[in-house]
Design brief:
The chain contains nine helices and no strands. It is mostly helical.
Length: 230
């Protein structure tokens, strides 16, 4: 009787165990299908990202090429011009640079155009526009110390040309602190002149002496020596 009872219980339990295993298996299959869909979706998204990324890189490359070509053309045209011509003669070249900046300002060539255009405006006496462009270039090149300092140096010269001596002094001092040796030398020379103009001969002399001491091979060293001895 006990044996029959045990068999009876086992017979009743076997289908329940089988159903349980079968149910668990179905759940695993369902999860596998779910994860399979997720993996396929993830792979599809990854492919889309690759395609979009390649498209963006292609677009940026094309944009950089176009901007570089425009920059070279505008720069060459400017170099071939008579620098003593009146302002009207520079209207077209200025417009070329402005178009380049408007259309491709986010490219490296577009950022370089800011510096070039700022220099043109400075040389043609448009100091307000020159200062704006140098400020924009300084911001655009904030991750590139070399070009950022070139823009800062341009800002200093422009402020001096506008008669803003104190602003120019402050900017040239920054160039002396962080600029390249060539920029530091000319910044010290400019400081020597500005201090002299603003009635501070002692600081003027100190600027010239530092220039001669630290940058004796600079083209500004000999004029500085003359001013010290004079």
């Amino acid at each position: 009787m006990a044996t029959e009872s045990t068999r009876s219980r086992n017979t009743q339990q076997e289908p329940e165990a089988y159903d349980s295993i079968q149910g668990y298996g179905k759940k695993l299959l369902a999860r596998a299908k779910l994860y399979q869909k997720q993996l396929i979706s993830a792979a599809a998204v990854f492919c889309v990202v690759l395609v979009v990324g390649a498209g963006v890189l292609y677009f940026l490359d094309r944009a950089e090429d176009n901007a570089s070509a425009m920059l070279i053309q505008a720069s060459q045209q400017y170099e071939s011009m008579d620098k003593n011509a009146d302002d009207a003669a520079f209207a077209d070249i200025k417009q070329q640079f402005q178009t380049l900046i408007d259309e491709y300002g986010y490219t490296d060539a577009g950022k370089m155009a800011l510096l070039n255009y700022a220099g043109i405006c400075y040389q043609t006496g448009d100091h307000d526009r020159s200062l704006e462009l140098y400020q924009s270039a300084h911001e655009a090149f904030k991750s590139n110390p070399h070009f950022s300092q070139l823009a800062l140096n341009g800002m200093a010269y422009t402020q001096a040309a506008k008669g803003n001596d104190q602003e120019a002094i402050s900017l040239f001092q920054q160039v002396v602190e962080d600029g390249s040796p060539a920029l530091k030398a000319q910044a010290l020379f400019q400081l020597g002149m500005l201090y002299s103009q603003t009635g501070n001969p002692e600081k003027s002399r100190q600027a010239y002496e530092r220039l001669v001491s630290d940058f004796s091979d600079s083209i500004f060293a000999e004029p500085a020596r003359s001013r010290i001895s004079g």
